[in-house]
Amino acid sequence: MSSGESYNMYLTARVAAKRTTLFPQAQYEEMLGYGSISAMIKYLDNSPYQADLAEALSHADGADAIEEAVSRHMERVFSEALAIGYGEPSGMNLIGMFLMRWDLMAVKALLRHVFLSARFKYPLPAIMPGPSLQTGLMASLAGQPTVDALIQALVQWNPFLCGALQPAWDAHPVSDPDAQAWVGLEDVLDRTYFTHSLVRLSTDENGQLLRDFLRMEIDRINLRAICNVFAYERNNRIPVDSMLPGGHLPKTLLAQMLDAGSLESATLQLEKTRYQSLHRGLYAMLQRNSFAVLERKFEALFIYNFLRMARFNPYSMAPLMHYVWMRSIEAANLQVLARGITAKLPAGRIQEELVYV
After folding, report:
1. Please, are residues 153 and 144 in contact by the beta-carbon 8 Å criterion?
2. Is the pLDDT of residue 220 over 80?
3. pTM for the whole thing?
4. For residues 311 and 233, what is the distance between their CA atoms, to the nearest angstrom?
5. Phi, psi (5° rounding) for residue 292?
6. Which of helix, strand or coil describes residue 318?
7. pLDDT digits (tens, 9 = 90+) for 70-82
8. CA distances from 129 to 107, 143, 169, 337, 345 (A)
9. Contacts for 101 with CB less than 8 Å, ≥ 6 apart
10. What percentage of the chain exceeds 90 in pLDDT?
11. Would the pLDDT of 17 be above 90?
12. Are the beta carbons of 121 and 113 closer than 8 angstroms?
């Protein structure tokens, strides 16, 4: 047995042990049934979140303590995932590239927060940390007084991911207060992360695995942009060339969807693609005027793919990707539960926001 094979077996065993600590769906229902935040805290005090919760409770309480605890726990998950990758340099590179997706999402949330805070009273939402954008740093960045100051700080923090933000922001008209300014910045971030990552990927099995995931993420972003056109009845057709390149869905199909005239007609174009199961979900999104349906559908697709590939080759990166994604969904669900219970929302309303996979 080669050293590479031995390491892959070790990685698989480590990840398999961690996956047994994930909450099953029944535990969300049990916490929801408690109806009080103190009961939820007591429940989490006998879970993998125990140490992080104890630290959070030393200076916070209620939903704030739970949000901080799950964020700190995700920081631990990212660190452990990177540590597992140290056994193999190529694996470390791919794992780091995969985990950078959470840095990307956190940066987008920070830009949105600071941009909106300059115009309205916009409270800081619960933002999932990334492997290198952790809770303390996020709090500091969220406190930046202007978008200019935030972009400068982000570029200093991560020139690779955020370096293109400064010239993009400088090119935007100062007199234009339109929210499309921050949407344009998100597009710059997406192109930096996805385009550069796809080019750098290896052609081995793990490289192909990550490539498939990144292409699905690109499809999710493009489909959301198309849904946005129909959901808000925009008259101006967005050019297909503005879509992110590199996804599974070709430009010709994206163009057909944009020309379809309605969301229902547009989603019919997905019937012969890997996303045929999204058809009904996308139309439900329009009916509810919420992108949450689309996001939940994609979360389920990601989990299904990771699990399928993990079963096909348990010694690949797939089991680790599946575990990290599942833990991230779990953390988001716990934050939704904490806020919903605190606000005394009806159980059915809270359940609508949970992701069940």
Report:
1. yes
2. yes
3. 0.89
4. 43
5. -60, -35
6. helix
7. 999 999 999 999 8
8. 9, 16, 24, 18, 26
9. 193, 217
10. 46
11. no
12. no
Geometric angle at alpha carbon 333, from 78 and 292, rounded to 5°: 105
Our CA dihedral for 287, 291, 294, 295, rounded to 10 degrees, sits at -150
Q: Which residue has the tokens 């697709």?
A: 301
**Structure tokens that stand for 342 in this block:** 């605190």
Q: How many residues does the chain have?
A: 357
Task: Count Cβ atoms below 10 Å from residue 330 Cβ, excluding itself.
Answer: 23
Look at residues 335, 208, 223, 348 and name the one whose alpha carbon lies nearest to residue 274: 223
**∠ Cα 275 278 280 (to 5°):** 145
The CB-based long-range contact list for 220-227 (8 Å cut-off, 24+ gap) reads: 220/294, 220/298, 221/190, 222/247, 222/249, 222/254, 223/249, 223/275, 223/278, 223/282, 223/294, 224/291, 224/294, 226/254, 226/257, 226/258, 226/266, 227/263, 227/282, 227/285, 227/286, 227/291, 227/294
User: Which run of H or of E encompasses 224?
Assistant: helix 205-231
Q: Which amino acid is present at 108?
A: K
Task: Centre a 10 Å sphere on the Cβ of residue 203 and count the other Cβ atoms it contains.
Answer: 7
Residue type present at position 244: L
State the greatest distance between any 2 C-alpha atoms of the chain, in Å, as a whole number: 65
Instruction: Tell me the per-residue pLDDT of 159-214, one tens digit each, with 9 for 90 and over.
Output: 999 999 999 988 876 555 555 566 789 999 999 999 889 988 888 888 999 999 99
Instruction: Give the up-direction half-sphere exposure of residue 332: CA atoms within 13 A in the CB hemisphere.
Output: 20
Q: What are phi and psi of 186, to 5 degrees?
A: -65, -40
Residues 6+ apart with CB under 8 A from 125: 109, 113
